[in-house]
Amino acid sequence: MLEHGGRLRRAAQRFGIAAEQWLDLSTGISPFAWPAPSIPASAWHRLPEDDDELIDVARSYYGAPYLLPVAGSQAAIQALPELCAPSCVGILAPGYAEHAHAWQRAGHQVESRSAAVLFAQAKHYDVIVLIHPNNPAGDRFDVATLLQLHGELAARGGWLIVDEAFIDATPEHSLCMHSEREGLIVLRSVGKFFGLAGARAGFVCAVPSLLHALRERLGPWTLSGPSRHVLKLALADRAWHEQMRARLQACSKRLALLLSGHGLIPTAGCAFFQWCSNERAAAWHEALAARGILTRLFASPASLRFGLPGDDAAFDRLDNALGEITLARVRL
Amino acid sequence: MLAAVLLDSALGEPRRAHPLVMFGKLAGTIEMRLHADRRLAGLGAWCLAVLPLVALTWWVLSMATWWLWWTCSVVALYLAIGHRSLGEHAQPVADALAAGDLDVARASVGRMVSRDTALLDASQVAAAATESVLENGSDAVFGALFWFALLGAPGAVLYRLANTLDAMWGYRTPRYERFGWAAARIDDVLNFVPARLTALSYAVLGHTACALRCWRRQAPQWDSPNAGPVMAAGAGALRVKLGGAAPYHGVWEARPELGEGAMPDAGSITRALRLVRHAVVLWLVLVILLAWIVGGGAHA
């Protein structure tokens, strides 16, 4: 199993600070969760039905003609490599590590490369996997460039897979509305934007034949009844989406400003996190953890990812801790 | 000087809006604008961050009436020293170790040093805290007192700002190798005399022969020219074994051995704090005597 953010209990044990006292900035999940209502008893009691309104609501929210609900985009990340003949796969790096892991395990030839290399040498690959915006490195692409890349791959029967887990705050950059094209697969997650990571829900947008194969592979009832119920309401809540996009952007900008002020200058970021490539990342990580603030440390390149602090008190706490680290002259 | 030290021991460092934290932000902003992989860029950034504030302190003092001059000097020195905060950070480590609570001791020492505290045993936790007290005694107290005695409040401000910039920029990493060069060298120069006076004070107030022996033999092996004498003499003065391999971010780094005698424990931390405290008293007495002999008395 690969490392992920959000391992609060382990950090609590390691640093001797009780779990409820931490400020957890180790994930890219929005701190402003969609307020889930109570679940009707029938959602627990009955088997989930595929033909409830969820698909229509999701189609309208994502702007995708065809989609399949899955138990988090992770389920699709693991299953897609198994639907594909042995291929040469180019995966954006540094990026969300589960992609390379899954393709490798399925026996494909995997190359982890920067965006520049993937675009320049598209001919070399049968499948290209992009994370957009990239996590943690923040790479962004415009729709026209992506469609051109897809065209090149699809002409040879190849795939372009775009993991859009962090795109909900900038939906104009999404490829969902183009996902009726053969060989284009878009992955969406409700964990980050809606702050519903515990629901383990996501969607795959692609042509019906591929969705059908994926569904066969994953089996029935991939989403639980309670998850379907909550998603139907969350995806339809337009006013909340609008308000949240602005709020996340503002919050992320504020975080970038705060970090820069302490000499931790963000290398990149998106509406959900700021990412600092810094040779002393490990030391910052430890010093912050000693003050009960959990960040996500990446070894290569040495870097830290900061999720959004959820309120003024959390911003103040981060600000004070970074100031204290400078003041205490901890040799970083 | 006495007033500032008393103020520090009564109040400790201000929790909110410490001017040094604001200075840290200013330096962060300057770095963001001016960072370039050149020594000259680093020197320029250093000057821009430090010199205006030192000049401002000097200018305010030169305009002030004597009581305002006195108040400003006391406040400036008070903000430049962090004697009480040494104890506030180190005493909880000693208390936890004495109570046998290794987890709390590790958590507390994690706020003082940048090591993988989860990998430390009780004696290594004590060593980390003792080293930090001895070294920071020199950085956070004696350096500022020395430059205050020599140049007044602008000296203390200069010293503390230079010291803060060294902590922010003085690293041998690709980003800071050249940009941080000026910050690191200037801090070395400003610390050269005070670090040796600190080492001498530790030696005089502890096991003198042992401290001088360790200073002579062990200090040259240490990678920092100023921390070497301070830590070696301090370890010798306490007759305790410090230094040696320590885990930094997943790698056990070899470091030279310091001091001689027993392995460190909770008592070593308390004794290191006492050593620093006694040295502060010694410095105050000497400065007052010196001022009295010279006939000014104003700095005291």
Automatic annotation (TrEMBL), chain A:
EC number: 4.1.1.81
Catalytic activity: O-phospho-L-threonine + H(+) = (R)-1-aminopropan-2-yl phosphate + CO2
Keyword Transit peptide listed: no
Domain Aminotransferase class I/classII large: 67-316
GO terms, biological process: cobalamin biosynthetic process
Class of enzymatic activity (EC top level): lyase
Cofactor requirement: pyridoxal 5'-phosphate
Keywords: Cobalamin biosynthesis, Lyase, Pyridoxal phosphate
Single GO MF annotation: threonine-phosphate decarboxylase activity
Pathway: Cofactor biosynthesis; adenosylcobalamin biosynthesis
Role summary: Decarboxylates L-threonine-O-3-phosphate to yield (R)-1-amino-2-propanol O-2-phosphate, the precursor for the linkage between the nucleotide loop and the corrin ring in cobalamin.
NCBIfam families xref list: L_thr_O3P_dcar
Protein known as: threonine-phosphate decarboxylase
